[in-house]
Amino acid sequence: MNLLRKILLPIVPVYYFVTWLRNKLYDLGMKKSVSYDFPVIAVGNLSVGGTGKSPMVEYLIRLLKDKVALATLSRGYKRETKGFLEVQVNATAKEVGDEPLQFKTKFTNVIVAVDGDRRNGIKNLKTQNPNLEVILLDDAYQHRKVKAGFYILLTPYYDLYCNDIVLPTGNLREPRSGADRADTIVVTKCPNNLGDETMGKIEKKLRVKPSQTLLFSTIDYGDNIVNASGKRLLDTLKKTSFTLVTGIANPKPLIDYYHSLGLNFSHINYPDHHNFTDAELDQLKKHTFIITTEKDYVRLAPNFSEDVLWYQPIEMKFIKNRNVFDSRILSYIKK
Predict the structure, then answer these.
(1) How far, in Å, CA of 38 to CA of 27, rounded?
(2) What's the rounded Cα separation, in Å, for the pair 105 and 185?
(3) Extended strands (E) in 179-305
(4) Prior bond to 168 cis, omega within 30?
(5) Residue 86's Cα: distance from chain center in Å?
(6) DSSP summary character for residue 41
(7) 1.20.58, 1.10.3450, 3.40.50, 3.30.70: which CATH number matches 3-68+133-220+317-334?
(8) What's the DSSP call for residue 242?
(9) How many other C-beta atoms can be found within 10 angstroms of the C-beta atom of residue 25?
(10) Distance CA 16, CA 110 (A)
(11) Predicted local distance difference test score (pLDDT) of residue 1
């Protein structure tokens, strides 16, 4: 914890009360939430920073895209545009945000949209796509003006929300009691060898309600690095040095994974969702072989040749009981 966060500790009770009161007013119906007569699934977290929302949204897309007419709705964090936009494959990250562009580039037949006002976004999606059946809301757990039909709450293994406090000293956007709204809680970024005993201890710490499902997931790194021209096996890089460039909340798991493979690389780290300046791009162009994350790739790709820039794909993988999660989602949609 840095010094500034320690200094701001007296503000924590104020932030706690304001966010608690806001939630209570929504819970009591004194502030209005809009619900819908079609399936709306919200993915989110209690804490700031990377909890694995994008891999979860992509998992849901893979699960549903061939079964229903599907759309995703994000706010388009750090985009330079305003209002509602339906994302096209030729858009830029500056126009629509990096993660929505990543979704559209990977799943071209899925409708992807951005709007900071989720009510307005849902309204426009249904107006422009009358046959739309299901909407996935990305990073919308605190967006209480919309009442989703199913809430998925993510918390990373190394930073469980039960061990944290609210901003500005902690990382929680709202009190831990906000977890009660979740239908399913997923502990993300777990070690592959996580055992049942540890899972049981975490379940007790999180105080999971009988109506909630608790699941554990890990990051599945692909065997290849990828760019627009093709793939290359990671194993072929063991005698090659390269530069790893990351602009994500927590690059440590990826760094640890590459170290475990015995790869030789230097690391350049930027803040999450970083918009690269011309000067930064000029410095990066001095490197002859760059690997980055998929989210960073959609921002960097227009500035580099295909032989220089590659990205590391990742997917979310359940450690066990994947069928339980899939069944809950599909049952909700059918209902």
Answers:
(1) 21
(2) 28
(3) 184-188, 213-221, 224-227, 230-233, 241-246, 264-269, 290-293
(4) yes
(5) 19
(6) E
(7) 3.40.50
(8) E
(9) 13
(10) 38
(11) 58
Q: What single-letter amino acid sits at 316?
A: M
The dihedrals phi and psi of 209, each to the nearest 5 degrees, come to: -75, 155
Q: Residue 185 burial (CB < 10 Å; 0-12/13-18/19+)?
A: buried
CA 90 to chain centre: 22
Which among 181, 187, 240 has a CA at the least distance from the CA of 214? 187
Task: Walk along the chain (335 residues) and give the pLDDT tens digit of each residue.
Answer: 578 888 989 999 999 999 999 999 999 999 999 999 999 999 999 999 889 999 999 999 999 999 999 999 999 999 999 999 999 999 999 999 999 999 999 999 999 999 999 999 999 999 999 999 999 999 999 999 999 999 999 999 999 999 999 999 999 999 999 999 999 999 999 999 999 999 999 999 999 999 999 999 999 998 999 999 999 999 999 999 999 999 998 899 999 999 999 999 999 999 998 989 999 999 999 999 999 999 999 999 999 999 999 999 999 999 999 999 999 999 999 98
Q: Is the Cβ–Cβ distance between 72 and 112 less than 8 Å? A: yes
Q: What is the pLDDT of residue 268?
A: 98
| Amino acid type, 32 | K
Place of tokens 């299901």: 134
Residue with tokens 């949209």: 113
Angle between helices 53-64 and 98-106 (to 10 degrees): 30
Q: Using an 8 Å Cβ cutoff, are 168 and 107 in contact?
A: no
3-state secondary structure of 316: strand
| Domain ranges, ordered by start, for the chain | 3-68+133-220+317-334, 223-312
User: What are the φ/ψ torsions at residue 229 (nearest 5 degrees)?
Assistant: -90, -15
CATH of domain 223-312: 3.40.50
Q: Is there a shared CATH topology between the 3-68+133-220+317-334 domain and the 223-312 domain?
A: yes
Pairing of strands 85-86, 70-74: unpaired
- Give me the DSSP letters along 170-208: SSBSS-GGGGGG-SEEEEES--TT--HHHHHHHHHHHT-
Q: What integer pLDDT is reported at residue 49 of this predicted model?
A: 81
